[in-house]
């Protein structure tokens, strides 16, 4: 899960993707946003 955008990378939880891709793939990963 590496995207070309290196801005705002989320390296926590072993996720190597930008926030935009993370939010778009959050449901596919099974991540539930509490906020």
UniProtKB/TrEMBL annotation:
<protein>
    <submittedName>
        <fullName>40S ribosomal protein S29-like</fullName>
    </submittedName>
</protein>
<dbReference type="GO" id="GO:0008270">
    <property type="term" value="F:zinc ion binding"/>
</dbReference>
<dbReference type="GO" id="GO:0002181">
    <property type="term" value="P:cytoplasmic translation"/>
</dbReference>
<dbReference type="GO" id="GO:0022627">
    <property type="term" value="C:cytosolic small ribosomal subunit"/>
</dbReference>
<dbReference type="GO" id="GO:0003735">
    <property type="term" value="F:structural constituent of ribosome"/>
</dbReference>
<dbReference type="Pfam" id="PF00253">
    <property type="entry name" value="Ribosomal_S14"/>
</dbReference>
<comment type="similarity">
    <text>Belongs to the universal ribosomal protein uS14 family.</text>
</comment>
<dbReference type="InterPro" id="IPR001209">
    <property type="entry name" value="Ribosomal_uS14"/>
</dbReference>
<keyword id="KW-0689">Ribosomal protein</keyword>
<keyword id="KW-0687">Ribonucleoprotein</keyword>
<dbReference type="InterPro" id="IPR043140">
    <property type="entry name" value="Ribosomal_uS14_sf"/>
</dbReference>
<dbReference type="InterPro" id="IPR039744">
    <property type="entry name" value="RIbosomal_uS14_euk_arc"/>
</dbReference>
């Amino acid at each position: 899960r590496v995207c070309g955008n290196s801005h705002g990378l989320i390296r926590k939880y072993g996720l190597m993707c930008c926030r935009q891709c993370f939010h778009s793939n959050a449901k596919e990963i099974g991540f539930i946003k509490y906020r």
